Amino acid sequence: MFFLGVVSLLFGQRACPVDKAFLRVKQSAVAFQPRQSQTDTLWVPVVFHLIAQDSSGWLSDLRIASQMRALNRDFAQAKIQFYLPRYGPQGEPTCGVTRTLSPYANHDWTSEENTLKNLIQWPPDSFVNIWVVNRMVLNTIGYARALRDTEGVAGVVLVASVVGDRDGAQVPYDWGRTAVHEMGHVFSLYHPFEGGCVGMTPQTCATEGDEICDTPPQARPHYGCPSPVPNTCSETPTDRPDPLDNLMGYVDDSCMEVFTPQQAARMRDFLIQAGPALISEENHVRRGRTLAPAEACAAVAALPSVSQLPLHWSVEGSVLRIHSPDPCTISLYDALGRQILRTEGVEVSVAHLPEGAYVGRIERQGIVQFFRFWWACGW
Ligand SMILES: [Zn+2]
């Protein structure tokens, strides 16, 4: 397991209390044998599970979209790209975002990792799960398990405040790079300071420390964005400064931007070997990757009405329209039966709703009728 934390969100010190020893699982469970990488872009479906104590704690779909842009911006260096699936585990319509209410949104990862992940998870062979919680103990802002980790479900856990790319996320972790860093761990990368000043020669750099030769060894993590770039190890034959701008370090989001070529190759090799089903074309077809948004997001798919209704209704984009000569009282209820909207009129927009099943109630001149619909894509 990999951890990324902070002493204080306000003052921005990342910290990662778990070292390489924790990765014995991955190393024994997955025969990591670097080989020639495919050159095509590797596509990876991800699902965000938003866990909150009440509905005000769920991030918006726009924040998730913003985070997706950050992931794809930084992983373009490795020719790895992410997408939100259009179809979930059972082939049901989805936006790739789920919302769950639970007290475990206040996350104690030291003892409740499995509890959190058992609230909701999609098959890790087919999706990379990203859980987003409201808070984590010890000021941790993210941690990850690599693909095929046998001690826990692979994926990323993030605190909500670091999700998004300058779109509401909290400075200095506001460029969406905590998710990028953690995803690097999912794909087998270590911190550049793993082990400190080890792997100091061309003969040892591939097997010691972070096992990457084009990230010079680094004695310890750096914070903030120090200048000039520090040089904490003296490797031979060529001494180079620390890889300060590396995405697997601890500096502020605005200070990091690089996956080196060898890090990119390692991630791709690992992904090909540890996640063959995940990146398979068959999976992409099942997840609807190639569907154009307009086609895939068919905003509202109507389910059969539950009764013969005196009033008709129809769907136009994200608008439900009641075919009534004069205003009705329109109420919407979520799958738990909670009223989430009540309005007077003949139409209502559902563009802001999380995806899922809903029940509508129309009342006009004492006549009440119900209908059901599925909201399948929010943006
Ligand atoms: Zn880390």
What this model shows, in words?
With 379 residues, the protein is α/β, with parallel strands linked by helices. The chain folds into two domains: 2-291, 3-Layer(aba) Sandwich (Collagenase (Catalytic Domain)), CATH 3.40.390; 297-375, Immunoglobulin-like. The protein has seven helices and 18 strands. The strands form four sheets. Strands 1, 2, 3, 4, 5, 7, 9 and 10 form an eight-stranded mixed sheet that branches. Strands 11-18-17-14-15 form a five-stranded antiparallel sheet, with no helix packed on it. A hairpin with a 2-residue loop joins strand 17 and strand 18. Mean pLDDT is 84; it is low at 5-12, 23-34 and 293-308. The structure holds zinc ion.
Chain-wise SSE layout:
Blueprint (H helix, E strand, L loop, with lengths): L1 E5 L7 E2 L8 H6 L12 E11 L8 H15 L4 E4 L13 E5 L4 E2 L5 H7 L8 E6 L1 E2 L3 E6 L9 E5 L17 H10 L74 H14 L6 H7 L5 H4 L3 E3 L9 E5 L2 E5 L4 E6 L5 E7 L1 E3 L6 E9 L2 E9 L4
Parallel strand pairs: 3-4, 3-5, 3-7, 6-8, 7-10
Antiparallel strand pairs: 1-2, 1-9, 9-10, 11-18, 12-13, 13-16, 14-15, 14-17, 17-18
The structure holds zinc ion.
Zinc ion binds next to β1 and α4.
In short:
The protein is an alpha/beta fold and 379 residues long. The chain contains seven helices and 18 strands.
Key phrases:
single chain; 379 residues; alpha/beta; Collagenase (Catalytic Domain); Immunoglobulin-like; 2 domains; 8-stranded mixed beta sheet; 5-stranded antiparallel beta sheet; 7 helices; 18 strands; binds zinc ion
